[in-house]
Automatic annotation (TrEMBL):
SMART domains, per the entry: AAA
Domain of life of the source: Bacteria
Protein's name according to its UniProt entry: ATP-binding cassette domain-containing protein
Family under the similarity heading: Belongs to the ABC transporter superfamily.
Keywords, ordered alphabetically: ATP-binding, Nucleotide-binding, Transport
InterPro entries: AAA+_ATPase, ABC_transporter-like_ATP-bd, ABC_transporter-like_CS, P-loop_NTPase
PANTHER family tied to this protein: ABC TRANSPORTER RELATED, ABC TRANSPORTER, ATP-BINDING PROTEIN
CDD domains: ABC_DR_subfamily_A
GO molecular function, one term: ATP binding
């Protein structure tokens, strides 16, 4: 375990933003903090990054006696701001001095992180001329500069276009191989692509935590959609390999199979019964359904 968060709460002008939040972050894990707008994601991450003081509760880094654990954390805020008149290199040198990186290492480290986020060619260009995606990558470079143990990213891809989003997620994919990552998003698909575990927040409360496959299981989803040319009623009911089903119409059914049954077996059973399969789909949006069920609870 890397961090233990215990009963964290924060309110603003009497309104609770985060209530009694407890969870642990395992060393080497990649965790997503999911939740709709206003759920309390930024408030939680800012408390973890020590930018906000909790009203109550504790945050403890395993084996780190110093209460100020900021050297262990890299943080990319939801809306990072920069000095537009600085170049990328000047900005990172400035940030590096603030986090006490030795002078002898600073230059090399700045070039290393700028290369990692593919900004080496823009190193000596003014930040004012950067696109949104470039600024976001510069923010990541700043968060990585002092080699943190825990990288905290607040909605790192929300403002990016599809390509920027994919590129940024790929960077996280590389980073998670040698550091612990916690990032927030309101897009389930982002979490699905790169993280091991999710925390779902709603109205400041933790609604669910665990690995995404267990979310699907727990919410009793029917992830396979089958359509045939002929009606399937009378057949689906008899198939012992099916765990659960729901008809959309007589020719379309949503099905769940037990873990040991391969979806091909369902196809085979239908073909054996002279049904012409016109559509067979493993539905990804079923996870989205589970997420919606959690946040509506
Ligand atoms: N500085 C503040 N002053 C007053 N209320 C605040 C402040 N910061 C957050 N809040 C309130 O706390 C609640 C949680 O906000 P927070 O920004 O943590 O949510 P979020 O999950 O990050 O939302 P988003 O997805 O929109 O970024 C909201 O109701 C918000 O209005
Ligand atoms: Mg936020």
């Amino acid at each position: 375990m890397l961090v233990k968060i215990n009963n964290l709460s924060k309110q603003f002008k009497g309104k609770k933003a985060v209530s009694n939040l407890s969870f642990t972050i395992q060393e080497g894990s990649c965790m997503a903090l999911l939740g709709p707008n206003g759920a309390g994601k930024t408030t939680t991450l800012q408390m973890l990054a020590r930018m906000l003081t909790p009203d109550s509760g504790s945050i403890q880094f395993n084996g780190y006696p110093n209460k100020d654990y900021r050297p262990l954390i890299g943080f990319l805020p939801q809306h990072p701001s920069f000095f537009n008149w600085m170049t990328a290199k000047e900005f990172l040198s400035f940030a590096g001095k603030l986090s006490s990186i030795p002078k002898s290492e600073l230059n090399g480290r700045v070039e290393e992180v700028l290369t990692f986020v593919s900004l080496e060619e823009a190193m000596t260009k003014k930040i004012g001329g950067f696109s949104g995606g470039m600024k976001q990558r510069l923010g990541l470079a700043q968060a990585l500069l002092h080699k943190p143990k825990l990288l905290i990213l607040d909605e790192p891809v929300s403002a990016l276009d599809p390509k920027g989003r994919r590129d940024f997620l790929q960077l996280i994919e590389v980073l998670k191989q040698n550091m612990t990552v916690l990032f927030s998003t309101h897009i389930l698909h982002d979490a699905e692509q790169i993280c091991d575990e999710v925390l779902i927040l709603q109205d400041g409360c933790l609604k669910w935590k665990g690995a995404l496959p267990s979310l699907r299981k727990e919410f009793d989803l029917l992830p396979i959609k089958v359509q045939t040319e002929e009606p399937m009623n009378g057949i689906i009911e008899q198939l012992e390999i099916i765990d659960a089903y729901e008809y959309i119409d007589l020719k379309t059914v949503k099905v769940r199979l037990p873990a040991h049954v391969h979806p091909n077996e369902l196809l085979q059973e239908l073909i054996n019964r002279n049904r012409a399969v016109t559509h067979f789909e493993m539905m990804h949006d079923s996870l989205e359904d589970a997420y919606m069920k959690v946040v509506r609870q």
